[in-house]
Amino acid sequence: MKIIRTAAIYARISSDQTGMGLGVQRQLEDCRKLAAERGWTVAEEYIDNDISAFRSKARPSYERMCEDIRAGRRDAIVAYHQDRLTRRPMEWEQFVELCDQAGVQNLATVTSDIDFGNDNGMLVARITAAVAANESARKSERIKRKIQQNVEQGKPNGGAQRPFGYENDRITVRESEAEIIRTLVQRFLAGESVRSLVSWMTAEEVPTTAAAEGWRTPTLRQILLSGRIAGLRDHHGEAAGPAAWPAIISVAQHHQIQALFQTKKVSGRRAPRSYLLSGMLRCGNCGNRLYSSIRRDRRRYVCLSGPDHRGCGRLTIVAQPVEEWIAAAVLMRLDTPAMDDVLTGRADTNDRQAALLTELQTAQSKMNELSEMWAGGEISKPEWMAARMPLEARANNAEKQMNQIAGANTLDALVGQGEHLTASWDTLNLDRQVAIVRAVLDTATILPGVLGARSVDYNRIIPSWQL
Question: Where exactly are the structural domains of the chain?
């Protein structure tokens, strides 16, 4: 009898909903016991947890085991059952051929043994593989039908983790987390970035539903985009209908979140990193926007000339004083009676926001077409610039109005909070500060200053308010 010195144990489970690997652990225990009874020395245990063997998903440990068999490093295989190795007849034939070429004739399973050199043994193995494949297909169809039924009835899916904002039954709202979601939505619609909100959640030590994991940008982005928090049943990433659980935010807010994410995707705009007023200042000479610029460690806003910026290039202002003045003016304005009047009778802006998004996407698409035409030599650069300028103006106007709508949505929480925000202003991160300023300020025009002046004349700053 051949002495088995380098046996492989393979264990796999298709679904591990608890994430604890208990099913795999039970397989390993039984396989180790069987190997010991045979007197086989186990060289390595190969484990694929929570991976199906019916669909063509990569199984890293299975593939590594096959490579070791191919290289002659294993002389026997132990598994709990044949279907742990594969449920696909074609893959089973490939595995048998691999073992035959490598001279591996011993496959022991807890439920039965397979003799690769015996015709009857292989016939039974092939029948078993076909039955397993059929059962997997039937199970897959049953699961699909169950999922479809849940979608139609608005019932939740299963899964190892409960959704943030809801209890373990996935129906009952967990109010402590729901309040956090409402705050996140409010701040995001006001213009704060997901990255900034993740930093805030981390600093506040808000726990995730997966105890071992911290907050990450993709996780929070998925929560904000999900129809679940608006009381909608998502299916394949889209709302399929009303859900059986209560909403945490309104459907209107859900649509605003989707539109804002799409706006950022189309415009490619990133949250400012070191300048409070990026994109909000205009040159008093030519009307062009001012750009951030650093010279000898001094932050400035400047009007840039040249074909890329098309400004006059004759105006500069130091950043810090104008940022401090604008911030103080914004916070003071939040506490004026006029801002209370702004909120009274504000019309629903959902349709307007959708129209603006379409306008922005159309202008962006046409600009891309122009760029392709210029690159292909179909039009000259002057023709490209002449056609691009009105499209650029349309896109900028649509984005500006969408920012105004987003700003209006957050005024409910900001109006009357000027004094409080003033006291805590320096503790807010830059994204949060920008979101507050954008909610109130449209633009500020910077008038030309006295040449050689050593201090900023605040009369040069002419703000234009959003509302």
Answer: 7-150, 281-465
Dist. CA 31–CA 15, nearest whole Å? 20
How does strand 42-49 pair with strand 7-13?
parallel
Taking the C-alpha atoms of residue 205 and residue 23, their distance in angstroms, rounded to an integer, is 33
Query: Span 7-150: which CATH code?
Result: 3.40.50.1390
- Per-residue burial over 305-319, b if 16 or more Cβ lie within 10 Å, else e, is eeeeeebbbebbbeb
Question: Quick one: which of 163, 148, 151, 155 has its CA closest to 222?
Answer: 163
Rounded CA gap, 204 and 198, in Å?
10
Q: Three-state DSSP class for 106? A: strand
Q: Token digits for 263?
A: 């706006």
pTM given for the model: 0.47
Quote the CA–CA distance of 172 and 244 in Å, as a whole number. 10
The total of other beta-carbon atoms located within 10 Å of residue 301's CB is: 25
Across the beta sheet with 281-283, what order do the strands follow?
Answer: 281-283, 441-446, 461-465
3-state SS string for 74-98? CCEEEECCHHHHCCCHHHHHHHHHH
Two structure tokens written together for 355:
């129209």
C-alpha torsion sign, points 431, 432, 438, 444: negative
Element (H, E) at 444: strand 441-446
426 class by beta-carbon count within 10 Å (0-12 exposed, 13-18 middle, 19+ buried): exposed
Q: What is the pLDDT along the chain (467 residues), one digit of tens a residue?
A: 568 889 999 998 865 554 445 578 888 999 999 999 989 999 999 998 877 655 567 889 999 999 999 999 999 999 988 888 887 778 888 888 888 889 888 888 887 766 555 555 556 656 665 565 556 556 555 545 555 555 555 566 666 688 899 998 888 999 999 999 999 998 888 777 888 888 888 888 898 887 667 888 888 998 998 888 988 876 555 665 678 889 999 888 888 888 778 766 655 555 456 789 988 999 999 999 999 888 777 889 999 987 667 889 999 999 999 999 999 999 998 888 766 665 554 545 556 666 777 787 788 788 888 888 888 888 888 888 888 888 888 887 877 776 666 555 556 667 777 888 888 888 888 888 888 888 788 899 999 987 766 678 899 999 998 76
**DSSP per residue over 20-69, as a string?**
S-HHHHHHHHHHHHHHHHHTPPEEEEEEEES--SSS----HHHHHHHHHH
In this structure, the dihedral spanned by the alpha carbons of residues 418, 422, 428 and 432, taken in order and rounded to 10 degrees, is 30
Residues in Cβ contact with 70 at an 8 Å cutoff, skipping those fewer than 6 apart:
98, 101, 102
